[in-house]
Every structure is written in C-alpha cells, then in structure tokens.
Design goal:
Blueprint: E1 2-7, H1 11-20, E2 26-32, H2 36-46, E3 49-50, H3 54-58, E4 65-68, H4 75-82, E5 89-91, H5 99-111, E6 116-118, H6 126-137, E7 143-153, H7 154-164, H8 175-178, H9 181-191, E8 194-202, E9 214-221, E10 226-232, E11 234-246, E12 249-253, E13 260-264, H10 269-273, H11 283-294, E14 297-299, H12 304-321, H13 330-349, E15 353-355, E16 361-362
Parallel strand pairs: 1-2, 1-4, 2-3, 4-5, 5-6, 7-10
Antiparallel strand pairs: 7-11, 8-9, 8-15, 9-10, 11-12, 12-13, 13-14, 15-16
Helix pairs in contact: 1-12, 5-13, 9-13
C-alpha cells in the first residue's frame, strides 16, 4: 500500500483521496496544510499524522509519495521543496503561471530522477479517453483542424467571490492558464506540438476579474493542422467543447447534445458514391449513401467527474507502484503552460508567438 504525504488538505485533496480509498491502493501517512483545522478534519476522515510544517511533512518517516494540492500560487514552491526528497509526486494544475518556471521544475525532477504527475483532469474524463482510444486505434490520416470553445458566464464566479470570498485567488488569476489549461492539454493531445499562436483579445468591461472578456486564437500545429481556441467570459451559457477534423473522421467532444460523437468518412468508393452514381440524378439521392455512412456514432457516459478522479489516481498508483512514466508529465505541463502564456501575451501585445523545442513561448 502506498503511504501518502499530503501537501494540502482542501476539498480537491479529499476528492482525489475518496476516489479509490476503498480499493486500498494507498493510505494517508502524513498531512500538512497552513490551516491546522483543515488538516485535522482530513485526518479524522482518512487517518494519518498532522504535521506542523512543510519540512516536517517532507521528512516524515514512511512516506512513499507526495500529493500536492494547494492554492495555484503555491504549487511551484511546494514542488520545488518536494523533488529533492526523491519520491514520486502528484501536483495539481497549474504547476505555475510561468512556463519557464514549469520547465525549470521539469529539469529539477529529471536531475533527481523523480516522476511527477500533473492533475490535468479533463484528459481523464471517460468521453475524452474514449475519443483518444478511437484516434489511437483508427488512423486519422491528415489532421486538418483542432478546435476548442471554452465559454462561461464569468460574472457568477466573480460576484460570489466578491460577496463571500474577497481574498479568493480566482479574483487574481486569468482563466486561460488556470482552468483552460485542461482544454489546451486536450488540444495538444489531438493536434501535437504547436508552431505558432496569434490571438485577438478583448478586455473592455471594467470589473475585478483578470480573465479576458473574449479571446480568439489561431493556432498553427507543427503537423500543418489549423487550430482555433475561443475563450469567453461574456457568454450566457456554458460550453467546453472540442472538434477534431481529419481525413478519415470528425470528432465532436463534449457537445451540447452528446459527450462524444464520431462521424466517419465513408471508407470505400461504393459507400461514397452509392451503388449507381450515374443513375442517381437528384443530388439528395446521389448523396444519400455518403450521408448514411457519415451518421455519427454517439456515446454517452455516466459518473464522468467521479470516473476522472479514479482514472487520475490509478495513473498515480501505477506511477508509484509500477514505476510507469506519468501520462500527464511535467514536460506536458511545460507545453500547456507555454501555450496558455502565448495565447494571452499574443492578444495583449498584438504579435504572434512561436515556441522553443521544449514548448516555451518566444515573441
């Protein structure tokens, strides 16, 4: 059984622990949080020993791996403190709001031979895993485009924090690197590495909310595919959706009707043209065979968020127990942070950004 040292004892830590706690893959060995009451509440639920400092946690006897879930401003320093102890680490996203700092931490982890898993949750949703599995098993051919829409009414979060949690970090950070990192991670999974980003940013509404009102980015992938990322906090419905268009199929992920739809190009000339193309003089008749073969395979999933937490933690278990490389590694986090940084800086500075081989933005 893996004995965990918890660096942070908030709601996210509890959700991750609860996902597989009955399967006895892990147990809580030690806990540290700036809020002692929070640590004590977690200890009462999951056991372990409450530590009174980060140093006490990191040196606590018998800890096999660390799980870091704090304010996003504290993740990088907590990870920097943890890595030299040589134990596997899970760290929540974002690792840092600076791609250069994430890269620095990835080099530190490599130096100490420490595997680090990053909490990019949306790649672990069952619908995302199903889409990625389909892509792996069915060659896409040429990828033409990868699109993402991330829409929400930002005023709800802003107003709640103003009235109830005026010190909440959500009033101090942009959603692009904080929440949209999940979406950018999936775009990179579908499209591969990025060559160039050009953004158009709108920020005109006066409010204590640093996210853009609206930003649209044209993304050029190294494969030659197009990418389109659209974030808006001034939309009066919510949507977090993705589109992959390729030579052999189109995929709609997290659409408003179904979590996953796959529309395949008809595979054979007969299915594209129909049995008698010369005799099908009406366009609708000529097109009928093609449309029939393109009808989407639609899939729905239950318990998506709970399943994502289970998938995250089992990946962590495999990383620690079986010494498997983490799927969402620090190297992945560098590219995600670099893409988020390029999107925002391109819109703010009015110029395009390219990337180093590691994924750091260059203006």
């Amino acid at each position: 059984m893996i004995r965990l040292g918890l660096y942070g004892s908030g709601n996210r830590s509890k959700a991750l622990l609860s996902s597989l706690i009955q399967d006895k893959f892990y147990c809580v060995q030690a806990i540290y949080d700036l809020n002692p009451a929070s640590s004590e509440a977690l200890r009462e639920q999951f056991g372990g020993t409450v530590c009174h400092s980060a140093a006490e946690l990191l040196q606590f006897s018998g800890v096999d791996a660390f799980l870091i879930s704090l304010s996003p401003f504290a993740h990088a320093e907590a990870l920097r403190q943890s890595i030299p102890f040589g134990k596997p680490v899970f760290v929540e996203k974002p690792v840092s709001f600076s791609a250069a700092e994430v890269h620095e931490l990835s080099l530190l982890a490599r130096q100490h031979h420490v595997p680090v898993q990053v909490g990019f949750m949306r790649r672990y949703l069952p619908e995302t895993l199903a889409a990625l599995e389909y892509v792996e098993q069915n060659p896409a051919g040429r990828i033409f485009s990868v699109d993402c829409n991330w829409f929400h009414h930002g005023e709800t979060e802003m107003n709640y924090c103003i009235f109830h949690q005026p010190d909440n970090f959500r009033l101090q950070v942009s959603q692009i690197p904080f929440h949209c990192c999940h979406a950018l991670d999936i775009m990179l999974l579908f499209g591969g590495n990025v060559r160039r980003v050009t953004s158009q940013r709108i920020k005109v509404v006066e409010r204590p909310y640093p996210s853009p009102d609206d930003v649209t980015s044209l993304i050029e992938f190294e494969s030659g595919a197009n990418g389109h990322f659209h974030y808006s906090s001034m939309v009066y419905y919510t949507e977090m959706s993705y589109r992959l268009h390729s030579e052999n199929y189109s995929i709609r992920l997290n659409g408003r009707e179904h979590p996953l739809e796959i529309c395949r190009r008809p595979r054979y000339v007969s299915s594209r043209l129909g049995a008698d193309p010369e005799g099908a003089r009406d366009f609708n008749q000529f097109n009928a065979s093609y449309e029939a073969f393109c009808r989407p395979m639609s899939m729905t999933f239950s318990q998506s968020l709970n399943a994502a937490n289970e998938n995250i933690m089992y990946d962590f278990v495999q990383m620690v127990r079986d010494q498997l490389a983490p799927k969402a590694s620090l190297d992945v986090a560098v590219r995600v942070a670099g893409l988020a940084e390029a999107i925002e800086r391109s819109g703010a500075e009015g110029k395009s950004f390219t990337f180093t081989p590691e994924g750091l933005p260059v203006g």
